[in-house]
């Protein structure tokens, strides 16, 4: 069975600072995808960033970047220059085979 | 490009009543997912369709939940009879699931309250 673990239920960051959200996973698939999703309060879940497991280069999308450590099965999300609009639940997700698994989420607060 | 549409957005019912949710995925997306998201938790997969066939329904409580995706486009999820613990947000998502495009796109969800 595939699993996704997010060990930080809650995190906070000062506006304009950098924060890193942790995610570890387990899968027996050799080919898989990893994602970070953002869910603002009472709003729609949206994709933040994706990473193909076969790619060694870490994905980057503007202020969002990942640190993908395949051997350690770790997939952390770094948010640079944090903004008030970054406050949300962040979910790490794994797609292996045809199975999509979400982690329990990390609630990020951004302090002005 | 239109996103994933869901209706209704909110529903309040009494326990033992029935309810149905509707989802229209992004055009061309072969894979459709229904999730249950209880407040403060991550989404839990209920059922996954590939076109009009079921790929995974292992976590669907089949004694009360049913889902269909006729013609491989839109889908309905039904609960009958509802229990208090079914109070949650029901999310629909779709994915192209090919050509390297595997991410899911989510609808706004239906918030169900069972009293």
SSE layout and pairings?
The complex is a heterodimer of chains A (112) and B (115).
Chain A: E1 3-5, E2 10-14, E3 19-21, E4 24-26, E5 32-39, E6 46-52, E7 60-61, E8 64-69, E9 74-79, E10 88-96, E11 99-102, E12 106-111
Parallel strand pairs in A: 2-12
Antiparallel strand pairs in A: 1-4, 3-9, 5-6, 5-10, 7-8, 8-9, 10-11, 10-12
Chain B: E1 5-7, E2 10-13, E3 19-24, E4 31-37, E5 44-50, E6 53-56, E7 65-68, E8 75-79, E9 88-95, E10 105-106, E11 110-114
Parallel strand pairs in B: 2-11
Antiparallel strand pairs in B: 1-3, 3-8, 4-5, 4-9, 5-6, 7-8, 9-10, 9-11
Account of the protein in words:
The complex is a heterodimer of chains A (112) and B (115). By secondary structure, chain A is mainly beta. Chain A contains no helices and 12 strands. In chain B, strand 7 and strand 8 (75-79) form a beta hairpin. By secondary structure, chain B is mainly β. In chain B, strands 2, 4, 5, 6, 9, 10 and 11 form a 7-stranded mixed sheet that branches. A 4-stranded antiparallel sheet of chain B has the order 1-3-8-7, with no helix packed on it. In chain B, 0% of the residues lie in helices and 48% in strands. Chain B is built from no helices and 11 strands. Chain B has strands at 5-7, 10-13, 19-24, 31-37, 44-50, 53-56, 65-68, 75-79, 88-95, 105-106, 110-114. The interface between A and B is medium-sized, with 20 and 22 residues.
């Amino acid at each position: 069975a595939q699993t996704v673990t997010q060990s930080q239920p809650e995190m906070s960051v000062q506006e304009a600072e950098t924060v890193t959200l942790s995610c570890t996973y387990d899968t027996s698939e050799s080919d898989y995808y990893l994602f970070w999703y953002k869910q603002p309060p009472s709003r729609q879940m949206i994709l933040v960033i994706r990473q193909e497991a076969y790619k060694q280069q870490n994905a980057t999308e503007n202020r969002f970047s990942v640190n993908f450590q395949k051997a350690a099965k770790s997939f952390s999300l770094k948010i640079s220059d944090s903004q008030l609009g970054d406050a949300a639940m962040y979910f790490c997700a794994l797609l292996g085979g045809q199975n999509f698994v979400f982690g329990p989420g990390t609630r990020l607060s951004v302090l002005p | 490009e239109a996103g994933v549409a869901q209706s209704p957005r909110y529903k309040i019912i009494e326990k033992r009543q029935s309810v149905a949710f509707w989802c229209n995925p992004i055009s061309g997306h072969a894979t459709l997912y229904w999730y249950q998201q209880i407040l403060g938790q991550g989404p839990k997969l209920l059922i996954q369709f590939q076109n009009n066939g079921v790929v995974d329904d292992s976590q669907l409580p089949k004694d009360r939940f049913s889902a269909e995706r006729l013609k491989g486009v839109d889908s309905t999820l039904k609960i009958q009879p509802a229990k208090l613990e079914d109070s949650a947000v029901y999310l629909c998502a779709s994915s192209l699931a090919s050509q390297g495009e595997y991410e899911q796109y989510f609808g706004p969800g239906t918030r169900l309250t069972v009293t």
